[in-house]
Inverse folding.
């Protein structure tokens, strides 16, 4: 991958692509790499269990900060979804593969498919120009786990202090909360699944907690090899 | 275990998600170089310790990570209201009795009574105090 392609300068900010190209000779390792080495994470697929936990590694995570109106225009133009203006809102695009989440009154988390975040950040920066805003690529610091299965809610009831019943966490809601003494972002993107955004340094702890808490139901943690 | 209303998330959240951060409404001297050591010491180190109404800063540490203010009764631990940074309390030591007589405040433990009310007041009664 050429230097010119992986680095850019938009406005007064230098940006760079955090995904090494296939020819860069670097094997990317997700935050669950240690868990995988320990045998706690298996390849995707296999016999159906009552709970499935699937890591979606290497997604593009961007934190946007700034005024809602300014950012809303730019996000709508680039992603085709409007910024969730209501607290704790989570919106997905038509495909369901890109999401924008309310984090605090001036902060949103954007998650896009792997490799899209570099171009997206540059396009957003170009569009926002001199507006008062910040964009930070936090993809290296966290990873996303999808929880599905009939017992997924019961597993969460043992793990988080938040009310995960339908009236507490309906589809389209996302909260930061306490998960087994650490912090996670808990999201409800669709009826069928929950999502956990876990910090890199706590990823192995979270996986081992999930495996332990899910043992009575049958639970497997899966992640596709890079 | 009790719930605190976050004025930014706009809902009740578990106490575990929050952290107290001391007395609210402290004003940093505009020109630190011109104040006396006593004044600077007061600003930096000395805090009120009232019996009764106290305004404190808290942070929704594991949620939205915003700082906000709480008016709390230090004798009953009751949280009377929560409000955003930059806003002023509606309940103060001067008007607390009046507010109580107006029925703004209830005696139910744990629930704040200004801002959003719990949908069901029986929730309060069922909470062991
Ligand atoms: Zn909050």
């Amino acid at each position: 991958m050429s230097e010119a392609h992986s680095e850019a300068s938009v406005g007064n900010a230098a940006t760079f692509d955090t995904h090494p190209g296939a020819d860069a000779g670097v094997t990317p390792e997700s935050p669950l790499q240690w868990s995988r080495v320990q045998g706690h994470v298996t390849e995707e697929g296999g016999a159906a269990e009552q709970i499935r936990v699937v890591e979606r590694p290497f997604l593009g995570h961007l934190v946007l900060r700034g005024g809602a109106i300014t950012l809303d225009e730019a996000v709508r133009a680039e992603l085709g979804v409007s910024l969730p203006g209501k607290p704790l809102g989570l919106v997905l695009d038509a495909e369901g593969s890109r999401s924008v989440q309310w984090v605090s009154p001036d902060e949103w988390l954007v998650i896009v498919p792997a490799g899209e975040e570099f171009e997206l950040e540059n396009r957003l920066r170009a569009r926002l120009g001199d507006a008062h805003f910040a964009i930070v690529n936090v993809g290296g610091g966290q990873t996303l786990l999808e929880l599905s299965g009939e017992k997924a809610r019961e597993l969460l009831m043992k793990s988080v202090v938040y009310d995960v019943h339908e009236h507490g966490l309906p589809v389209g809601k996302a909260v930061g909360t306490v998960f087994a003494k650490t912090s996670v972002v808990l999201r409800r993107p669709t009826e069928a699944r929950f999502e956990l955004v876990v910090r890199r340094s706590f990823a192995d702890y979270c996986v081992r907690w999930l495996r332990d808490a899910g043992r009575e139901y049958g639970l497997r943690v899966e992640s596709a090899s890079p | 275990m009790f719930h605190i209303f976050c004025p930014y998330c706009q809902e009740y959240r578990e106490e575990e998600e929050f952290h107290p951060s001391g007395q609210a409404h402290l004003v940093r001297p505009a020109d630190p170089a011109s104040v006396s050591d006593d004044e600077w010491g007061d600003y930096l180190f000395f805090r009120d310790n009232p019996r009764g109404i106290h305004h404190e800063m808290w942070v929704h540490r594991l949620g939205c990570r915003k700082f906000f203010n709480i008016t709390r009764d230090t004798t009953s631990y009751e949280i009377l209201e929560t409000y955003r940074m930059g806003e002023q309390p509606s309940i103060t030591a001067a008007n607390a009795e009046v507010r109580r007589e107006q029925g703004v405040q209830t005696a139910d433990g744990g629930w704040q009574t200004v801002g959003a009310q719990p949908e069901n007041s029986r929730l309060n009664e069922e909470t062991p105090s």
